[in-house]
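Progress note, project year one: complex with WT7.
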Amino acid sequence: MPSEPQVYKPDPKLSSSAYVSTIEQYHELYKQSIDTPEVFWGNIAKQFYWEQQCEPKNFFNYNFDISKGPISIKWMEGATTNICYNLLDRNVKNGHGDSIAYYWEGNHPDDSSRLTYRKLLQEVCRFANVLKAHGIKKGDRVAIYMPMTLELPIAMLACARIGAVHSIVFAGFSSDSLGERMTDCQAKVLITADGAWRGEKLLHLKKICDAAIEKADELGHKVECCIVVSHINRSTPGFENGADGFECPWTEDRDFWWHDEMEDSEPACYPEWMSAEDPLFMLYTSGSTGKPKGVLHTTAGYLLYAAATFKIVFDYKPNDVFWCTADIGWITGHTYVLYGPLANGATSVIFEGTPFYPDNDRYWSIVDKYKVTQFYTAPTALRSIMKFGDEPPKRHDLGTLKVLGSVGEPINPEAWLWYYRVIGKEKCSIVDTFFQTETGGHVITPLPGCTPMKPGSATYPFFGVKPMLLDEGGAEVHGEGEGYLVFAQPWPGMMRTVFNNHERFETTYFSKFPGYYCTGDGARRDADGCYWVTGRVDDMLNVSGHLMSTSEVESVLTEHKRVSEAAVVSRPHPLKGECLYCFITPNQNDKFDEKLVSELKVLVRERIGPFAQPDVIQHAPGLPKTRSGKIMRRVLRKIAVNDRDVGDTTTLADESIVEQLFANRPN
Ligand code: WT7
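Model obtained:
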């Protein structure tokens, strides 16, 4: 076990004003949240509007044990509400109509705007009416593939207002990925933009969408209409000539400009009252086998959880300015750019660009410009900024910061300490928030001003979350130790099912350890009861915060007609956290050459997305297989890092393969 790390006490100034200000208070509240969830969450529910209340005895109901029947999770059954109403109308009625909901900062520093709660409500109503005019009704799925512009939250909330289910695909996925997802969720409409700038790179989003609609067509699903935001043409400061010759492909009768549709649309729209367990949105995530899963989140529980985690984990107070750098296309963006902040009437920043444009100090210039109080980003971003040293942040006043968040992967102590010292000046609390697309919001996290911090540990469970560690046989690991990270009871914000495939939901998350939700991560618990998430225990890997499965990449590689077999493993990477290392066996009598390597890279980019591009593709005349034909991946992982300590290989059908693979490593 590693030596005891240093513990960092929260700044007393932060503690004195925090919602939860001592660890004793945390433990007390935590106990209440586990023993009487209906009391804990009932208090949070009180701040929201319920068209119909639920009876206290129905507040929460579940079955986590597959041997006792289907897995089911229900919160506040019988209640009806509308999330959009709670986020917008309620805040406007409470006198926050003129408060800023979003400061929008474009890719170029001269491009910015803002939106008040009142204006946001009007725009959402207008777009809700547009969707209705296109025949979208409660329960229909709406696909969204958009850059980080203000139309993105408007589109999401318009869906929520009329009870349509938004299904956002991060606008870095390829057309194939988008087409497959639209087919899986049977999306009627696709909302996108003509294009977007990322740094100096122009992304042709509508072109990708056209190819995706075609892909869906091939798969037998027709996307009826596509609504397009004219983003490139309306705003390109600094690029006045850069977009010359930019073309947005168009299909009459299927494609519609956002601004044309909005022009005569009424700025009022009565909300659709939704049952507590009606679907709110779905979001695809990779599975260790098979195609991506449509993780489904529902209405009431998600609202409570997004609201509570946002407020408490970031200690958000009126007049604070919150900034989460995540793209809205990920769960972090759904919960902490959209639903959590708006449920609290908060002011946030939405940033379209990258940390490196026009210069490496862009993040800090934005923190300074908007006087950001809570900043939330990913370790991979920190590592890539850190390498430019301390000078870029020193150019700016970062004195407004109180809380610094981290999410997406374990944060290495070096990045943690840099964040703490150089960005936070040792006065900010760092919240290393562990969660998943499936968990909807933070499940293990420190609380600012409250939890003593340890670099690299997500520390303690959030309220209502009951983590446990299990060994391979399913026995509980008590006290200090390591094991599979599972949860023993549901919290309001967890996923309810895999869209259209409840069986897959049950087998993926509930079959390995009956009675528990299995995260797929491993974790260690130290003597203080703090959790240290160690990473995936399945064949999944995390490249710059993007979760993907090795099998997903392998199946793309083997699509190439010159490839006979492929095996992919994860290798540690200094910036990305992990990267893909691929072993390729060409067809018999075919050779392995540079042409094949570059074609394979292109194939992965096209089929999955640019972020999935492998770092290394090496020739494997054969793969290390057991006599039963199972690839010994631990051996491949050793070869990837050039570690000769491969352990026992006597069960391999052909041990000499290992030596050959070491010899074939590219430099
Ligand atoms: C996986 C979930 C959570 C939003 C972004 C990713 C890893 C996430 C942490 C953290 C250690 C973390 C886990 C998890 N992960 N946050 N603070 N410490 N690991 O969502 O794509 O569903 O990925 O990301 O491995 O299972 P996702």
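DSSP finds 20 helices and 30 strands in the chain.
Residues 82-354 form a domain with the Rossmann fold fold (CATH 3.40.50.12780).
No further modelling is planned for this target in the current period.
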